[in-house]
Amino acid sequence: MDGNLNALTTVFTEFYYWVTVVFMFLIHVGFCMYEVGASRRKNHMHTLLKNIMVIPLVTVTFFFFGWWIYWTFPNAFPGIGGIDFAAGTAYTPWSENMGTNMQDRITGVFWAAFLLFSWTAASIVSGAVIERIRSSALWMHAVMIGSVLWIIDAAWGWHWDGWMVKVLGYHDAYASGVIHAIAGGYALGVIMVLGPRIGKFAADGTPRDIPPHNPWMLAIGLFLIYTGFWGFYAACNVPAISPEVIDGQITGTTWTATNIYLAPTSLSAITFNFLMSLSGGLMAAYIVSKGDAFWTLSGGLAGVITASAGNDLYHPIQAMIIAAIGVVIVYKLHYWVERRFKIDDAVGAVAVHGYAGVVGLIICGFVLWGAPSSPYEGYATVNPLGQTIGAVIMFGLLGFLPAFIISKIQASFGILRIPEAVERQGLDFHENETYEAAIADITQATHAATPAE
Amino acid sequence: MSTIGYENWAVDLADVGAIYPMQGWEVPMTIIGVLFWLGWHVVQFRSESRELAEAEKNISAEGVKKAIDRY
């Protein structure tokens, strides 16, 4: 670090990302509460552990190869380029940068910020499949979406050098597509093969509601996800950078915050837009769901997700209206797909994340039409076609397709779904029996050890 | 043409102000926003009135007793 200003900027940036990581931990806490709240009592502990174990499994694999993929894959697409091994040298698990190093204070916190996005992507899938998937099957999917597929899409469309940004003018500042559309598409691919929970559909195909055992827990889970989402938004920005360091077209000496593409924005802008899109989503969801608490809260989230692609540049009123439009589409689409294709999406993950992400990307193409996608020369500007192709890549090519294929393979080996009898009895049956037996045993022993009066 | 007024970032940020789309349309956007807000109240009020009327219609002495006991 040369000079006080550089030292201060580096330490500030290091601390900034560290704080976002701590905030984003709440997303995972929220997802766990949400999933357990939505599941039935007979499945609590398995539901919880299924999502808890996403944390270590995605973390270690993201350390081993996920982070390396981000830096080496920006142009790895047929007709565009290949894997840039040189760019990934500093991010292999055996690199000196991937450890305590006085010359690099940023890689650890930047890696962690991306890692928390990875947990989120995997956790979104985890919610859709509760009460009938084998944990081992879900954990394979968690590693695939968390440490391989989403980070490929981030390299392509969420990197200053990504080919989608250069060629398509792809713009997705707060990850409508690169996290939410891909995770929603992936969840759809898995549940199409996995099938619905027992009893979800009547003999004539009419869907039944499977109410959450604890709506309060579910609501608090969603509030925690909102809170973590603040950290997520901040983590998507570079907090302070000079035009000289960006080394693009920006002239002058004015420092700025930027989005992930190093194009100008501000924390103030995204604070306006986060709150206004949350509000637009909540208001629309309340009306369209006729005051249903689950959908109203989920609608707040879907509203933010819909506006996220362009929330670095939108006007707050635009963010509010875009969120509201997205939520109405998402809600209608969820029930249409459920009825038409007999899809059991236990927590509405495909809708809230997948459909909202896709709709948000396409709307962004129109509202930001012609805006520069990057501060570098020669990049395509934002446009509806590029955004639509981007949405197909995120939801379909990198989300739905691999999930469907992997799930088919798992199903063919009989390792995707739990046995029907176990599903009826509940995954926690053994734990519950042991728990009750332990209580009976210790109660009896305490009585026996208590002297008679 | 760019909706935010800039087609590239070959600019000195010291000279840049608003960069949201549709600059100059703030007042119409505000009117749309206010209509959305007021419309929400109208729709919500009507829907709540219907819901309360429906609830009132279905009240029974037995149901009230059960609700009180359930706390």
Tell me briefly what this model is.
The complex is a heterodimer of chains A (453) and B (71). Chain A is mainly alpha-helical.
What does the model show?
- Chain A has 16 helices and 3 strands.
- The model of chain A has no long low-confidence stretch (mean pLDDT 96).
- The relative contact order of chain A is 0.14.
- Chain A is globular and about 85 Å long.
- Chain A is mostly helical and 453 residues long.
- Chain A has one domain (3-245, 257-428): Orthogonal Bundle (Ammonium transporter fold), CATH 1.10.3430.10.
- With 71 residues, chain B is mainly alpha-helical.
- Chain B is rod-shaped and about 75 Å long.
- Chain B starts with 25 loop residues before the first helix and ends with a helix.
- Chain B has a domain at 24-70.
- In chain B, 59% of the residues lie in helices and 0% in strands.
- Chain B has helices spanning 26-57, 61-70.
- The chains are: A mainly alpha (453), B mainly alpha (71).
Itemize the secondary structure elements and their pairings.
The complex is a heterodimer of chains A (about 450) and B (about 70).
Chain A: H1 3-38, H2 44-52, H3 54-72, H4 107-128, H5 135-157, H6 163-168, H7 176-194, H8 215-235, E1 238-241, H9 243-246, E2 256-258, E3 264-265, H10 267-288, H11 293-308, H12 316-341, H13 349-367, H14 384-412, H15 420-425, H16 429-449
Helix pairs in contact in A: 1-2, 1-4, 1-8, 3-4, 3-5, 4-5, 4-7, 5-7, 5-14, 7-13, 7-14, 8-11, 10-11, 10-12, 11-12, 11-13, 12-13, 13-14
Chain B: H1 26-57, H2 61-70
Keywords (chain B): Membrane, Transmembrane, Transmembrane helix
- Uncertain stretches of 5 or more adjacent residues of chain A: none
Name the quaternary structure.
Answer: heterodimer
Q: In DSSP terms, counting alpha (H) and pi (I) runs of 4 or more, how many helices of chain B?
A: 2
Number of distinct beta strands of chain B: 0
What would the principal axes of the Cα set say about the shape of chain B? rod-shaped
Spatial order of the strands in the main sheet of chain A?
1-2-3
Given the C-alpha coordinates, what overall shape of chain A results?
globular
Q: Sheet with the most strands of chain B?
A: none
User: What pair of chains forms the biggest interface?
Assistant: A-B, 36 and 32 residues
Task: Tell me the domain tally of chain A.
Answer: 1
Mean pLDDT of chain B: 95
SSE string of chain B: HH
Q: How many helices of chain A?
A: 16
Mean pLDDT of chain A: 96
Beta fraction of the residues of chain A?
Answer: under 5%
Keywords (chain B): Membrane, Transmembrane, Transmembrane helix
Transmembrane segments (chain B): 25-43
